[in-house]
Amino acid sequence: MVFPAIFWIVALSYILAGSLSTYPFEFVHKALPALLLAGWLAQHNFRNKPIAIAALLFCALGDVFLALTFEHQFIAGLSAFLVGHVLFGIFFWNWRDWQGRKIVVLLLMMFTMICVAALLLPATGPMLVPVSLYMLVITGMAMCAVLAAKKGILLILGAVVFMLSDTLIGVNKFFTPIPMEHLAIMFSYYLALFLLSLGIIKRTQLD
User: Fold this and answer.
1) Is the pTM of the predicted complex or chain greater than 0.90?
2) What average pLDDT does the chain have?
3) Which has the least CB within 10 A, 35, 38, 53, 179?
């Protein structure tokens, strides 16, 4: 369990450091947890492994973009994460295992995202189209993760927490400031990546 331990040390250290001030090479620190998870997955053998690893690498790229300051920074970060979600969705779709009881979870996900969209989209202004597209993609990824789950709920939890993290970003940016937003957003984000990665590893053991 070396990779998980190192992951949480690095992730929690970034959450703490990032909440205090900016510092040199902060973008490296922020992206390192996703890179560590990519390395963790690389240690295991399973179908379509490069797709899952690429998804984490695009998440790391999104972290880099959002930690830097440049024109259209948010769009660049959004685009990188969008590609990451597409790759995760493709990966999970190849593992789809339909079970009737999953319909309840899928419907709840759809209803929740509709409610979030109704709250946030009117406030996004010129960002309406990219944010709408992003919400559709992450919802699709989460639904594919639900379909991929076989035994246990790690993949489902990871997808739900990822949706929560991105919702917090949207609320904080477009609707109203969230108290201690850095802690809430980054902890839920790193937790989502960890749950998805652990869920992938556990799911491979069932094939």
Assistant:
1) yes
2) 91
3) 179
Distance, in Å, from the CA atom of 56 to the CA atom of 41, rounded to the nearest integer, reads: 10
Asked if residue 153 lies in contact with residue 135, where contact means CB atoms within 8 angstroms, the answer is: no
CA distance 125 to 129: 9
56 touches 84 (CB < 8 A): yes
Determine which helix (DSSP H) or strand (DSSP E) holds 108, and give its type and residue range: helix 102-120
Structure tokens at 175: 């609707």
Q: Which residue has the higher pLDDT, 129 or 203?
A: 129
3-state SS class at 151: coil
Q: What are phi and psi of 7, to 5 degrees?
A: -55, -50
Identify the residue whose tokens are 């899928």.
106
Q: Provide the Cα torsion 146, 135, 164, 90; round to 10°.
A: 30
Please compute the mean of the pLDDT values over residues 117-132 and round it to a whole number: 92
